[in-house]
Amino acid sequence: xxxxxxxNPNLIMIGLLLGGFVGMFSETALNIALxxxxxxxxxxxxxxxxxxxxYLLMVGIVLPLSSMLTKHFTTRQLLIFALCDxxxxxxxxxxxxxxxxxxxGRMIQGIATGLILPLIFIVLLAVYPxxxxxxxxxxxxxVIMFAxxxxxxxxxxxxxxxxxxxxxxxxxxxxAIALIITLIFMQNVSEVTKxxxxxxxxxxxxxGFGGLVVGASLAGDRGWGNPxxxxxxxxxxxxxxxxxxxxxxxxxxILNLRAFSxxxxxxxxxxxxxxxxxxxxxxxxxxMYWQKGLVVPVALTGILMLPGGIIxxxxxxxxxxxxxxxxAKYLTRAGFGLSFIGALMLIFTxxxxxxxxxxxxxxxxxxGAPLAMSPAxxxxxxxxxxxxxxxxxxxLNTLQQILGALATAIATSLLGIGQAASHATGSTAFVHGVHxxxxxxxxxxxxxxxxxxxxxxxxxxxxxxxxxxxxxESTKTTTAEEN
Length: 483
Prior knowledge:
The chain is mainly alpha-helical. It has helices at 9-29, 34-41, 45-48, 50-62, 66-72, 75-95, 99-127, 133-161, 165-185, 199-222, 227-249, 263-293, 298-326, 329-347, 355-381, 389-421, 426-451, 465-482. The protein is 79% helix and 0% strand. Helix 6 (75-95) packs antiparallel against helix 9, helix 10 runs parallel beside helix 16 and helix 12 (263-293) runs antiparallel to helix 15 (355-381). The longest helix has 33 residues, at 389-421. It is globular and about 60 Å long.
């Protein structure tokens, strides 16, 4: 992707970043309200978590299509539609009086987030020169990392004074402001070529990613050995296999998976996925631990989540600049190392843990995760060259959101398994279940740390195999003509 000259790229990004902030905020804002929603909507924990995974499911289905959509519609058209769609979804959720309607509203919002997230990176790569992308990515990190961390705090304060409906009413004015800014400042950065739409790829992608998320989500309620769960997982894996195979053999794929021929991009993408899994699993479990394990009121829970959110914002804003100066090698290792310490501390919590101890564990976790996130993203995306560059952010964001949905579903399942395995009852049993979930967070941190050993500050040496093949064929043709 070539960078064009723009007089003020920051103004172009404002509407996108505000829309992205609301989208990412929405991913965790309801976490703190889930115990309350269980009672008011008369559903269990396995069902209520669909408000999180259903949202992420739609994000994961739409994200792979974003690269194709940018070739059929202008940047302005896509962003304006996404913001209007988000406003509709927020209003539907705010007016919902039952679980089904609330879930529909959440899924409508998921469509918007699935469009906005890749646009952030597409526009960023188009309007900022390479030497300024690290700092710009740090600003994006402020959106992607701070918003989910801030969600429980603001939602807790709202729930303390009002009802959960007002969480969604809060979205509407913010989205309206983003829409106005977009109408004034947003510019088109991608070329509309309108290639042929491969309907089969869309079906394979939607069923494949959807099957994985649905299977993992159902496991939280029915167990991993349930026939419905196994069937959904198998269908998801099979459809994704054929989807990947098709993308690698199409002349103009919906998603150019050849980006994975670049080693640094592959490593960076996996690290981002793992990091987001750490965030989503811990941010799902921690508010419930405060309320059900330590019996803390919802408003106070939001306040106790605030220090971690503030630290998250500071680290997210600075990690991009640290990447510009030091590269990703040591930042990713330090980030996952600190995430390991934070997760380990949460595993040792009890029903009588001191508030300061839990807050400290959360703060350490919120230093580690964003410290690794922005450098890993920039490390991966900077490695891409040629036609695959435009697809890089879409691939990265798609897999990040899918793993976020899977991590939430797995954490829910482990929470239930832990509670069932406990010989105690009440809050003690719940804390036992939460520990099972935090062991999963810890495992992700360990995996991320070891994979970060593959990160190097050396220039990317791999090339796009398709481009290499065409270059070789061109050389042969030229040689033959000369002879």
